What does this fold into?
Amino acid sequence: MPRAVAVSPGTKTPEPVAAVEVRDLTKRYPGDVRALDGVGFTVPTGTVFGLLGPNGAGKSTTMKILTTLARPDSGTVRIAGLDVVAEPRRVRRVIGCVTQRSGVDPAATGRENLTLQGRLHGMSRAELARRVDELVELLDVGAVAERVAGGYSGGTKRKLDIAMSLIHRPRVLFLDEPTTGLDPEIRSEIWEHIARLARQERLTILLTTHYLEEADRLADRVSILDRGRVVAEGSPGRLKDDLNGDAVVVELVEPGMVGAARRALDGLTLVREVVAEGVAVRARVDDAAVAVPQVLAALTADGVAAASVTVAMPSLHDVYLHYAGRSIRETER
Ligand SMILES: Nc1ncnc2c1ncn2[C@@H]1O[C@H](COP(=O)(O)OP(=O)(O)OP(=O)(O)O)[C@@H](O)[C@H]1O
It folds into this structure.
Protein backbone atom coordinates (compact mmCIF):
# COMPACT_ATOMS: atom_id res chain seq x y z
CA MET A 1 0.00 0.00 0.00
CA PRO A 2 1.26 3.49 -0.76
CA ARG A 3 2.35 6.06 1.76
CA ALA A 4 0.06 8.85 2.81
CA VAL A 5 1.62 11.34 0.38
CA ALA A 6 4.27 10.73 -2.27
CA VAL A 7 6.33 13.32 -4.09
CA SER A 8 6.86 12.94 -7.84
CA PRO A 9 10.48 13.73 -8.83
CA GLY A 10 9.96 16.39 -11.51
CA THR A 11 7.31 18.61 -9.99
CA LYS A 12 7.82 18.25 -6.24
CA THR A 13 4.05 18.45 -5.90
CA PRO A 14 2.48 15.90 -3.58
CA GLU A 15 0.75 13.04 -5.38
CA PRO A 16 -2.74 12.28 -4.12
CA VAL A 17 -3.02 8.95 -2.36
CA ALA A 18 -5.78 7.93 -4.76
CA ALA A 19 -4.55 7.95 -8.36
CA VAL A 20 -8.10 7.39 -9.57
CA GLU A 21 -11.20 8.40 -7.69
CA VAL A 22 -14.58 7.67 -9.24
CA ARG A 23 -17.78 8.75 -7.50
CA ASP A 24 -21.44 8.13 -8.37
CA LEU A 25 -20.89 8.01 -12.10
CA THR A 26 -24.01 7.88 -14.25
CA LYS A 27 -24.35 7.79 -18.00
CA ARG A 28 -27.38 7.16 -20.17
CA TYR A 29 -27.40 6.54 -23.90
CA PRO A 30 -30.30 7.31 -26.23
CA GLY A 31 -33.10 4.79 -25.93
CA ASP A 32 -33.00 5.07 -22.12
CA VAL A 33 -29.97 2.74 -21.88
CA ARG A 34 -28.59 3.21 -18.39
CA ALA A 35 -24.93 2.34 -19.11
CA LEU A 36 -23.67 3.53 -15.70
CA ASP A 37 -25.88 3.76 -12.67
CA GLY A 38 -23.84 5.12 -9.78
CA VAL A 39 -20.40 3.58 -10.33
CA GLY A 40 -17.73 4.37 -7.78
CA PHE A 41 -14.29 3.04 -6.88
CA THR A 42 -10.88 4.24 -5.78
CA VAL A 43 -7.48 3.12 -7.07
CA PRO A 44 -4.59 3.83 -4.69
CA THR A 45 -1.41 5.22 -6.26
CA GLY A 46 1.01 2.54 -7.44
CA THR A 47 -1.50 -0.30 -7.51
CA VAL A 48 -3.09 -2.37 -10.27
CA PHE A 49 -6.88 -2.33 -10.47
CA GLY A 50 -9.02 -4.66 -12.57
CA LEU A 51 -12.42 -3.73 -13.94
CA LEU A 52 -14.38 -6.88 -14.72
CA GLY A 53 -17.82 -7.43 -16.07
CA PRO A 54 -19.91 -9.18 -18.69
CA ASN A 55 -20.52 -7.62 -22.08
CA GLY A 56 -22.61 -4.49 -21.70
CA ALA A 57 -21.75 -4.07 -18.00
CA GLY A 58 -20.36 -0.60 -18.55
CA LYS A 59 -16.59 -1.16 -18.64
CA SER A 60 -15.96 0.64 -21.92
CA THR A 61 -18.18 3.55 -20.93
CA THR A 62 -16.28 3.87 -17.65
CA MET A 63 -12.92 3.74 -19.45
CA LYS A 64 -14.05 6.36 -21.98
CA ILE A 65 -15.07 8.76 -19.22
CA LEU A 66 -11.89 8.16 -17.22
CA THR A 67 -9.73 8.81 -20.28
CA THR A 68 -11.63 12.02 -21.19
CA LEU A 69 -13.21 10.56 -24.35
CA ALA A 70 -16.78 10.83 -23.00
CA ARG A 71 -18.54 12.96 -20.40
CA PRO A 72 -20.60 11.53 -17.58
CA ASP A 73 -24.19 12.69 -16.99
CA SER A 74 -23.34 13.07 -13.32
CA GLY A 75 -20.71 12.04 -10.81
CA THR A 76 -17.04 12.93 -10.53
CA VAL A 77 -13.74 11.43 -11.66
CA ARG A 78 -10.35 12.58 -10.45
CA ILE A 79 -7.17 11.26 -12.04
CA ALA A 80 -4.02 12.14 -10.09
CA GLY A 81 -6.17 14.74 -8.36
CA LEU A 82 -7.41 16.32 -11.63
CA ASP A 83 -11.08 16.49 -12.54
CA VAL A 84 -11.62 14.81 -15.93
CA VAL A 85 -14.48 17.11 -16.96
CA ALA A 86 -12.96 20.40 -15.78
CA GLU A 87 -9.34 19.70 -16.82
CA PRO A 88 -9.31 17.12 -19.63
CA ARG A 89 -6.09 18.42 -21.23
CA ARG A 90 -4.12 18.16 -18.01
CA VAL A 91 -5.59 14.71 -17.39
CA ARG A 92 -4.40 13.59 -20.83
CA ARG A 93 -0.85 14.59 -19.91
CA VAL A 94 -0.77 12.27 -16.90
CA ILE A 95 -2.41 9.22 -18.44
CA GLY A 96 -1.41 6.63 -20.99
CA CYS A 97 -3.94 4.45 -22.82
CA VAL A 98 -3.66 1.16 -24.63
CA THR A 99 -6.91 0.52 -26.44
CA GLN A 100 -7.89 -2.64 -28.26
CA ARG A 101 -7.24 -0.90 -31.55
CA SER A 102 -3.48 -0.71 -32.05
CA GLY A 103 -1.91 2.71 -32.59
CA VAL A 104 1.22 1.24 -34.18
CA ASP A 105 2.12 2.49 -37.67
CA PRO A 106 2.98 -0.71 -39.58
CA ALA A 107 5.17 1.16 -42.08
CA ALA A 108 7.47 2.59 -39.39
CA THR A 109 10.04 0.78 -37.25
CA GLY A 110 9.45 0.24 -33.55
CA ARG A 111 11.90 3.00 -32.68
CA GLU A 112 10.26 5.39 -35.19
CA ASN A 113 6.81 4.64 -33.73
CA LEU A 114 8.08 5.50 -30.25
CA THR A 115 9.85 8.64 -31.44
CA LEU A 116 6.79 9.90 -33.30
CA GLN A 117 4.64 9.32 -30.24
CA GLY A 118 7.10 11.29 -28.10
CA ARG A 119 7.08 14.18 -30.57
CA LEU A 120 3.30 14.29 -30.42
CA HIS A 121 3.72 14.82 -26.69
CA GLY A 122 6.17 17.64 -27.35
CA MET A 123 9.16 15.93 -25.72
CA SER A 124 12.62 17.38 -26.27
CA ARG A 125 14.98 15.49 -28.59
CA ALA A 126 17.44 14.43 -25.87
CA GLU A 127 14.80 13.44 -23.37
CA LEU A 128 12.91 11.50 -26.07
CA ALA A 129 16.01 9.58 -27.21
CA ARG A 130 16.70 8.57 -23.58
CA ARG A 131 13.12 7.52 -23.02
CA VAL A 132 12.96 5.48 -26.25
CA ASP A 133 16.10 3.54 -25.20
CA GLU A 134 14.65 2.99 -21.75
CA LEU A 135 11.35 1.64 -23.09
CA VAL A 136 12.99 -0.55 -25.75
CA GLU A 137 14.89 -2.21 -22.91
CA LEU A 138 11.98 -2.29 -20.46
CA LEU A 139 9.60 -3.96 -22.91
CA ASP A 140 12.36 -6.16 -24.32
CA VAL A 141 11.86 -5.13 -27.97
CA GLY A 142 15.54 -4.35 -28.71
CA ALA A 143 15.90 -7.20 -31.22
CA VAL A 144 13.15 -5.80 -33.47
CA ALA A 145 13.32 -2.06 -32.74
CA GLU A 146 14.91 -1.25 -36.12
CA ARG A 147 12.47 -3.39 -38.14
CA VAL A 148 9.16 -2.16 -39.56
CA ALA A 149 6.31 -2.94 -37.19
CA GLY A 150 4.13 -4.44 -39.95
CA GLY A 151 6.14 -7.65 -39.59
CA TYR A 152 5.84 -7.91 -35.80
CA SER A 153 4.07 -10.79 -34.07
CA GLY A 154 0.85 -9.98 -32.18
CA GLY A 155 2.66 -10.04 -28.82
CA THR A 156 5.49 -7.75 -29.95
CA LYS A 157 3.01 -5.32 -31.47
CA ARG A 158 1.13 -5.22 -28.17
CA LYS A 159 4.38 -4.55 -26.31
CA LEU A 160 5.12 -1.67 -28.70
CA ASP A 161 1.62 -0.28 -28.07
CA ILE A 162 2.30 -0.41 -24.33
CA ALA A 163 5.71 1.25 -24.78
CA MET A 164 4.13 4.01 -26.90
CA SER A 165 1.53 4.70 -24.20
CA LEU A 166 4.35 5.18 -21.68
CA ILE A 167 6.58 7.50 -23.68
CA HIS A 168 5.56 10.67 -21.79
CA ARG A 169 5.95 8.99 -18.36
CA PRO A 170 2.27 8.94 -17.43
CA ARG A 171 1.30 8.33 -13.83
CA VAL A 172 -1.78 6.27 -14.66
CA LEU A 173 -1.94 3.65 -17.40
CA PHE A 174 -5.26 2.41 -18.82
CA LEU A 175 -5.17 -0.98 -20.48
CA ASP A 176 -8.32 -2.11 -22.27
CA GLU A 177 -8.22 -5.90 -22.52
CA PRO A 178 -4.43 -5.91 -22.94
CA THR A 179 -4.01 -9.56 -23.92
CA THR A 180 -7.20 -10.31 -25.85
CA GLY A 181 -6.50 -12.37 -28.95
CA LEU A 182 -2.97 -13.40 -27.89
CA ASP A 183 -1.70 -16.96 -27.36
CA PRO A 184 -1.59 -18.10 -23.73
CA GLU A 185 2.23 -18.16 -23.75
CA ILE A 186 2.48 -14.61 -25.08
CA ARG A 187 -0.26 -13.56 -22.68
CA SER A 188 1.80 -14.58 -19.66
CA GLU A 189 4.83 -12.78 -21.09
CA ILE A 190 2.76 -9.59 -21.37
CA TRP A 191 1.53 -10.12 -17.79
CA GLU A 192 5.13 -10.24 -16.60
CA HIS A 193 5.84 -6.97 -18.39
CA ILE A 194 2.78 -5.29 -16.93
CA ALA A 195 3.65 -6.45 -13.41
CA ARG A 196 7.25 -5.20 -13.88
CA LEU A 197 6.04 -1.85 -15.20
CA ALA A 198 3.83 -1.36 -12.19
CA ARG A 199 6.85 -1.90 -9.95
CA GLN A 200 9.63 -0.15 -11.89
CA GLU A 201 7.74 2.85 -13.23
CA ARG A 202 5.66 3.30 -10.06
CA LEU A 203 2.62 3.26 -12.29
CA THR A 204 -0.97 3.02 -11.29
CA ILE A 205 -2.64 0.65 -13.74
CA LEU A 206 -6.33 0.28 -14.46
CA LEU A 207 -7.17 -2.62 -16.73
CA THR A 208 -10.33 -4.14 -18.09
CA THR A 209 -10.27 -7.79 -18.88
CA HIS A 210 -12.47 -10.76 -19.44
CA TYR A 211 -9.64 -13.17 -18.61
CA LEU A 212 -10.19 -13.66 -14.92
CA GLU A 213 -6.79 -15.28 -14.49
CA GLU A 214 -5.33 -12.01 -15.79
CA ALA A 215 -7.08 -10.06 -13.04
CA ASP A 216 -6.10 -12.70 -10.50
CA ARG A 217 -2.48 -12.56 -11.55
CA LEU A 218 -2.10 -8.79 -11.87
CA ALA A 219 -4.68 -6.86 -9.89
CA ASP A 220 -4.29 -5.77 -6.28
CA ARG A 221 -8.02 -5.05 -6.31
CA VAL A 222 -10.87 -5.69 -8.70
CA SER A 223 -14.35 -4.27 -9.22
CA ILE A 224 -17.03 -6.41 -10.78
CA LEU A 225 -19.47 -4.33 -12.82
CA ASP A 226 -22.90 -5.56 -13.79
CA ARG A 227 -25.62 -3.53 -15.50
CA GLY A 228 -23.87 -0.28 -14.76
CA ARG A 229 -23.30 -0.93 -11.06
CA VAL A 230 -20.39 -2.19 -8.97
CA VAL A 231 -21.63 -5.48 -7.54
CA ALA A 232 -18.40 -6.48 -5.78
CA GLU A 233 -15.04 -4.94 -5.00
CA GLY A 234 -11.96 -6.16 -3.19
CA SER A 235 -8.69 -8.00 -3.57
CA PRO A 236 -9.04 -11.22 -5.59
CA GLY A 237 -7.92 -13.18 -2.51
CA ARG A 238 -10.48 -11.55 -0.25
CA LEU A 239 -13.33 -11.96 -2.75
CA LYS A 240 -12.50 -15.65 -3.09
CA ASP A 241 -12.29 -16.12 0.68
CA ASP A 242 -15.63 -14.40 1.14
CA LEU A 243 -17.35 -16.97 -1.04
CA ASN A 244 -16.66 -19.89 1.34
CA GLY A 245 -17.27 -23.46 0.25
CA ASP A 246 -15.61 -25.40 -2.55
CA ALA A 247 -15.75 -25.68 -6.30
CA VAL A 248 -16.41 -29.13 -7.80
CA VAL A 249 -15.25 -29.46 -11.39
CA VAL A 250 -16.53 -32.45 -13.35
CA GLU A 251 -14.89 -33.17 -16.66
CA LEU A 252 -17.25 -35.00 -18.98
CA VAL A 253 -16.51 -37.87 -21.33
CA GLU A 254 -18.64 -36.36 -24.10
CA PRO A 255 -18.66 -32.62 -24.85
CA GLY A 256 -22.23 -32.95 -26.10
CA MET A 257 -23.42 -33.77 -22.58
CA VAL A 258 -22.54 -30.40 -21.01
CA GLY A 259 -26.13 -29.14 -21.15
CA ALA A 260 -27.51 -32.32 -19.60
CA ALA A 261 -24.84 -32.22 -16.85
CA ARG A 262 -25.69 -28.66 -16.05
CA ARG A 263 -29.40 -29.42 -15.79
CA ALA A 264 -28.70 -32.43 -13.55
CA LEU A 265 -26.61 -30.37 -11.13
CA ASP A 266 -28.96 -27.38 -11.22
CA GLY A 267 -31.57 -29.66 -9.68
CA LEU A 268 -29.48 -30.41 -6.56
CA THR A 269 -30.27 -28.20 -3.56
CA LEU A 270 -26.68 -28.35 -2.26
CA VAL A 271 -25.29 -26.90 -5.50
CA ARG A 272 -25.31 -23.13 -5.24
CA GLU A 273 -24.18 -22.28 -8.76
CA VAL A 274 -23.24 -24.29 -11.78
CA VAL A 275 -21.60 -23.23 -15.00
CA ALA A 276 -20.30 -24.92 -18.14
CA GLU A 277 -16.58 -24.59 -18.86
CA GLY A 278 -15.63 -26.23 -22.14
CA VAL A 279 -16.11 -29.99 -21.68
CA ALA A 280 -16.54 -29.57 -17.91
CA VAL A 281 -19.13 -28.23 -15.50
CA ARG A 282 -18.14 -26.27 -12.43
CA ALA A 283 -20.41 -26.31 -9.38
CA ARG A 284 -20.00 -24.30 -6.21
CA VAL A 285 -20.98 -26.16 -3.05
CA ASP A 286 -20.69 -25.65 0.70
CA ASP A 287 -18.86 -28.89 1.39
CA ALA A 288 -17.29 -30.91 -1.41
CA ALA A 289 -17.03 -34.09 0.72
CA VAL A 290 -20.81 -34.15 1.05
CA ALA A 291 -21.55 -32.90 -2.45
CA VAL A 292 -19.32 -35.08 -4.65
CA PRO A 293 -21.27 -38.36 -4.13
CA GLN A 294 -24.57 -36.56 -4.82
CA VAL A 295 -23.12 -34.81 -7.87
CA LEU A 296 -21.94 -38.12 -9.32
CA ALA A 297 -25.25 -39.84 -8.50
CA ALA A 298 -27.23 -37.07 -10.21
CA LEU A 299 -25.04 -37.26 -13.32
CA THR A 300 -25.30 -41.06 -13.50
CA ALA A 301 -29.08 -40.90 -13.06
CA ASP A 302 -29.27 -38.59 -16.07
CA GLY A 303 -26.94 -40.72 -18.18
CA VAL A 304 -23.97 -38.32 -18.07
CA ALA A 305 -20.53 -39.98 -17.84
CA ALA A 306 -17.79 -38.20 -15.85
CA ALA A 307 -14.14 -38.52 -16.89
CA SER A 308 -12.80 -36.88 -13.72
CA VAL A 309 -13.89 -34.93 -10.66
CA THR A 310 -11.70 -32.26 -9.10
CA VAL A 311 -12.30 -30.29 -5.92
CA ALA A 312 -10.81 -26.81 -5.72
CA MET A 313 -10.98 -23.64 -3.71
CA PRO A 314 -13.31 -21.01 -5.23
CA SER A 315 -11.59 -19.15 -8.04
CA LEU A 316 -12.18 -15.67 -9.40
CA HIS A 317 -14.48 -17.43 -11.91
CA ASP A 318 -16.69 -18.49 -9.01
CA VAL A 319 -16.60 -14.96 -7.58
CA TYR A 320 -17.61 -13.53 -10.91
CA LEU A 321 -20.37 -16.08 -11.40
CA HIS A 322 -21.69 -15.38 -7.93
CA TYR A 323 -21.88 -11.62 -8.34
CA ALA A 324 -22.58 -11.23 -12.05
CA GLY A 325 -25.06 -14.12 -12.09
CA ARG A 326 -23.42 -15.72 -15.12
CA SER A 327 -20.09 -17.04 -16.20
CA ILE A 328 -17.78 -14.61 -17.98
CA ARG A 329 -17.26 -17.36 -20.57
CA GLU A 330 -20.96 -17.27 -21.38
CA THR A 331 -20.62 -13.57 -22.11
CA GLU A 332 -17.41 -13.70 -24.15
CA ARG A 333 -17.56 -12.29 -27.61
N1 LIG B 1 -23.12 4.71 -28.16
C1 LIG B 1 -24.04 3.99 -27.52
N2 LIG B 1 -25.36 4.16 -27.77
C2 LIG B 1 -26.32 3.45 -27.13
N3 LIG B 1 -26.03 2.50 -26.20
C3 LIG B 1 -24.74 2.26 -25.92
C4 LIG B 1 -23.68 2.98 -26.57
N4 LIG B 1 -22.49 2.54 -26.08
C5 LIG B 1 -22.80 1.57 -25.18
N5 LIG B 1 -24.13 1.41 -25.08
C6 LIG B 1 -24.84 0.49 -24.17
O1 LIG B 1 -24.46 0.82 -22.84
C7 LIG B 1 -24.29 -0.35 -22.06
C8 LIG B 1 -22.86 -0.42 -21.53
O2 LIG B 1 -21.97 -0.60 -22.63
P1 LIG B 1 -20.39 -0.70 -22.49
O3 LIG B 1 -19.83 -0.78 -23.87
O4 LIG B 1 -19.90 0.36 -21.59
O5 LIG B 1 -20.23 -2.10 -21.75
P2 LIG B 1 -18.94 -3.04 -21.65
O6 LIG B 1 -18.95 -3.60 -20.27
O7 LIG B 1 -17.74 -2.33 -22.06
O8 LIG B 1 -19.27 -4.18 -22.68
P3 LIG B 1 -18.29 -4.76 -23.82
O9 LIG B 1 -17.31 -5.62 -23.10
O10 LIG B 1 -19.26 -5.54 -24.67
O11 LIG B 1 -17.71 -3.58 -24.53
C9 LIG B 1 -24.66 -1.52 -22.96
O12 LIG B 1 -26.01 -1.82 -22.74
C10 LIG B 1 -24.45 -0.96 -24.34
O13 LIG B 1 -25.30 -1.61 -25.28
Q: What stands out?
A: The domain at 245-313 is CATH 3.30.70.100 (Alpha-Beta Plaits). Residues 98 and 162 are 6 Å apart (CA to CA). DSSP finds twelve helices and 16 strands in the chain. The chain has two domains: 6-235, 245-313.
